[in-house]
Write a structure and sequence with these properties.
eight-stranded mixed beta sheet, 18 helices, homodimer, BirA Bifunctional Protein, domain 2, OB fold (Dihydrolipoamide Acetyltransferase, E2P), Gyrase A, domain 2, 607 residues, 4 domains, 23% strand
């Protein structure tokens, strides 16, 4: 059987001059020039210029009918391009091929958008995803993604990790988001859940003695997709035995550093800084600071406790309040009154009731050198102490947050990011770091109950085991998050490997023995049979590839993503199903869903 | 933070003599010998002998409490084993370590079965899968599986394939098995389906111009698990553009040949034989013959048409009948009357109403030399012709099947396999092959409608396009199956890449335009926009690893498999869920399922 091509387009070069080749690909562009037809033929390897002369009668007749995106097979002789027509931007730019035969393998209707068009709506891109993916940038992204996952596998296999698949049809897992459920046909009234992560299975694999496991695992969360989330996403899931957190962090750091070096030729720092959760919150208001941004939060809570100004002294004296400053060097001249007002609106989104600020005009002039609606409310001593602590200089602008610690941290962290962007303050391209020493628990503001900051299997610091019951709010965990440019790339921890400690953790979380047994009985069982000390991490592949590709949305790095409404515009999933299918699965639609479905069907029939 | 080990157990060898190491692992065995305690310490790398002398007072006290499968951290000095106690079977068998400190990292309750126990029930193995996986054979299987998938990736990346993930939450796909459904919370009354394969997505990726795609993809089928099937299974999914079937088969053959060479050091044949579907059915009664078995079916239909013996002449003269012989060399003396009767029962399972046979005692004696209940019913001419055609020799035994072709093929193919096993006829260890030239369609015996032998996207032979409408039953497809030892390893085809051909195929299958549009509209759309000629293949990873591991069940090569009743004995999935979860998903249980759930709950409460 004859081959459809002897060479890929991008491989045709000067070494082939005077030989006859056959190539196949898409007509990217056709132009007629002086009675001769030129076709830019594109395949996955690149572009090749095809010349069709009227002397090649049959080929010319075919070429004359060729439209953009037709699929062609071309038999042609390779020749050097005439002087002055070479194109050094193209690997094939020194040659062209002179067609003797053209075969249209498939035609193309006019495509709904041009491949080099910039502002195609996302809805159109997703509906015609197979055309969107033809675009050069998308081709690059998915080839990069493939290289990234291959790199991770190469690295981990070399370190003796074993790739093991865990179930997709499984039991509800404890990450806390909503599960996707799958009705069982065999077991009436029962459901599988799609995994939010392979967490428990990977711990069981450690009990099984594999010592080093990895998987590039699909995970599922049925959440409202306000943020840049997807119902299904992919994580690089890793678990190890007999390694402590330092060893795990070192190895993962090397893995990420080498990834950037090998796939992007980027040098990340030889050592990623490690920062405690407490320091991150204190200095950045957030547990994933963007260290490219030089701005820092400075607490002035203690300096304003005695002030009459209730806006400051109120939060300063409440148990959960915080007053913090954010100094913008030279901000006084860089930010207009209108811009400052806009920032006040902006922090309102994060619960702040206002945005106090001081323009530092002339420090030596004392109170008179400070321009601000709030200066009159603060004592000389407080103003002086604040200016000293934030290391103010003439021309600076200092923003303040004063509220519950949560509101201050959320709003100033967001303001810091926004200022960094608006004022182009970011230094360097890549700023990786680790955040460590997280609290084990945080109090749910609604229920007042302790919840896990990571998950219920995270181990507490070894010297705080006693406090698990007596003072859970004080216990730090053996967790670590890798942060890059303000985004969490991955998070992990040493896990609890002893039954009694796991039970104490459950107790602290208000999970009683019966619930623990029902939900996690198999884990508690497993910990009884020689579970080794173990810990791991999971990286968000979609996010990593998006950052490496310089795109904002993970939808751009997922071949067939869902919309923010969790539907697929290409296949029209989800969709209605036959009643018999539901009957086989022992389920019925709720009355309102049934009504909605009936309406849709009638609409379909009447249209 | 102190490391839990300086070396892995299997790495401790003579080069470390006199150095102090720390090792961690499981106490595989403890024995007391002359007042000294010996512990075989096991980690993923191997076994190490730990010696604990009463002189090491603290370590000895701890060692005295150690039970099997306790997890230990041991600090010890490496020394040569005393003469006469070395063990050349172990990589660490020349040394032992003399413990100075032992730390029990975790205890183990007595385990429910011993790791070297042979006849543990599968139910117990699956419930305690984390212990079952600790067994040496299981560790080997999953490390092999990881190497196999890694090998595939290495091979394909080197050939410019791009690894692309396709959705798990998607639309019902056309493989024909029952779908697993996932109710949508956002779109009331609508459902996602879990993919039976990425077939349509991989074709769309070809339309997108990726040219070479692969994925190790999870697939789902909600089937009754009578055979060795799993609700979720894994396939190596491959698709290419601009390659014809010969090129694809050649490349895949190389991939599988190199896999066996690299991972098992096994040489497969330099060229896999290719056999048409028609020949396979004619000679083996099945489209996946085990070529290690030298027995072949021989048609004698034409020889018995004129016979009075209705058992033979009936099927021979019916349109769908077949009379075939299966000669067993030297079978006359190797098979007793009782065994032959058992085979008659056996073929009954495949619909055969009996199993005629002839013992060839003395060919030269003609009819008198043939011993059989049926000889008297056949003419001399027929007997003579049959003996000539099957190339009978004295001492042979010839079985016959006479019925519809389907019953004859099914029953003799099964008999052939069974005889091959029972009489140890198999030659060689590995017999790979290709089956090609499949029919496009087969007639469903119930509905009388044409159905796809592969799937509706399989391309017909180029020279039979015209017959798609006029004579579909005659059209062969461009499909190919790779078969190894009677098992289908993988199957694929060149796909239809033109809208009009795809529509004709749908029409032949009785899929009208509206149904085609509803189910596959996005594919038909995509084919309109410059779809390249493309084709691919999918290999069953579970089956390949099972064969390479020498285990019968794919449950042994899946870390956390489901039972034949599609449940997980470890996690107890599927299980009941809260009413609120169902309400969120706009579904209710059917009345009977609700009753079943209530009964289960009451049982739980009263127990």
């Amino acid at each position: 059987m004859k081959a459809l091509r002897s060479h890929r387009c991008g491989e045709v070069n000067e070494s082939l001059i005077d030989t006859v080749v056959s190539v196949s690909g898409w007509a990217q562009k056709r132009r007629d020039h002086g009675g001769v037809i030129f076709i830019d033929l594109r395949d996955a390897s690149g572009l090749l210029q095809v010349v069709v002369d009227p002397d090649a009668v049959d080929a010319f007749a075919v070429a004359d009918t060729v439209r953009n995106e037709h699929v062609l097979q071309v038999t042609a002789k390779v020749r050097a391009r005439p002087e002055g027509t070479t194109n050094s931007d193209l690997p094939t730019g020194m040659v062209e091929v002179y067609a003797t035969e053209i075969n249209v393998l498939n035609r193309s209707d006019p495509i709904p958008f041009q491949l080099d068009e910039d502002d195609v709506s996302e809805a159109v891109r997703l509906k015609y995803r197979y055309l969107d993916l033809r675009r050069e940038q998308m081709q690059k992204i998915f080839r990069l993604r493939s290289r990234v996952t291959k790199y991770f596998r190469d690295f981990l296999e070399a370190e003796n990790f074993v790739d093991i698949e865990t179930p997709i049809l499984t039991k509800s897992t404890p990450e806390g988001a909503r599960d996707y459920l799958v009705p069982s046909r065999v077991h009436a009234g029962e459901f599988f859940a799609l995994p939010q992560s392979p967490q428990l299975f990977k711990q069981l694999l450690m009990v099984a003695g594999f010592e080093r496991y990895y998987q590039i695992a699909r995970c599922f969360r049925d959440e409202d997709l306000r943020a840049d989330r997807q119902p299904e996403f992919t994580q690089l899931d890793i678990e190890t035995s007999f390694m402590n957190e330092d060893e795990i962090m070192d190895m993962m750091e090397t893995m990420i550093r080498d990834l950037f070096k090998i796939t992007l030729d980027v040098e990340l720092p030889a050592e990623f800084p490690r920062m405690t959760y407490a320091d991150a919150i204190e200095q950045y208001g957030i547990d994933r600071p963007d260290l490219r941004n030089p701005l820092k939060l400075v607490s002035v809570t203690d300096l304003v406790k005695e002030e009459d100004f209730k806006v400051f002294s109120g939060p300063a004296n409440s148990g959960h309040g915080r007053v913090a400053a954010l100094r913008v060097p030279k901000g006084s001249s860089r930010l207009s009154r209108k811009e400052i007002d806009n920032y006040a609106d902006f922090v309102g989104n994060y619960g702040a009731k206002g945005l106090a600020y001081i323009k530092v005009n002339d420090l030596e002039a004392g109170r008179d050198g400070l321009q601000s609606p709030i200066v009159k409310n603060l004592s000389d001593a407080a103003l002086n102490d604040i200016m000293l602590r934030v290391e103010a200089q003439d021309g600076d602008l200092v923003f303040f947050g004063a509220d519950t610690a949560k509101v201050v941290n959320d709003s100033l962290a967001a303001l810091r990011n926004k200022l960094g962007e608006d004022l182009s303050l970011l230094k360097g391209t890549w700023a990786p770091m680790w955040v460590i020493d997280f609290p084990m628990f945080e109090k749910d503001s609604t229920s007042g109950r302790w919840t896990s900051l990571h998950h219920p299997f995270t181990a507490p610091k070894l010297d705080q085991l006693d406090e698990l019951s007596s003072n859970p709010g004080n216990v730090l965990s053996r967790a670590y998050d890798m942060v890059l440019n303000g985004t969490e790339l991955g998070g992990g921890s040493i896990r609890i490997h002893q039954t009694d400690v796991q039970k104490q953790a459950f107790t602290a979380l208000g999970i009683d023995d019966q619930e623990a047994e029902e939900k996690f009985g198999f884990l508690l069982d497993a910990l009884r049979y020689g579970a080794p000390p173990h810990g791991g991490i999971a990286f968000g592949i979609d996010r990593i590839v998006a950052m490496m590709s310089g795109v904002d949305s993970i939808r751009d790095v997922i071949a067939f993503p869902k919309t923010q409404k969790a539907s697929c515009l290409l296949t029209d999933a989800p969709s209605g199903v036959d009643k018999t299918q539901l009957r086989d699965l022992h389920i019925r639609l709720s009355a309102s869903a049934q009504a909605a479905q009936n309406a849709t069907q009638e609409e379909g029939e009447s249209s």
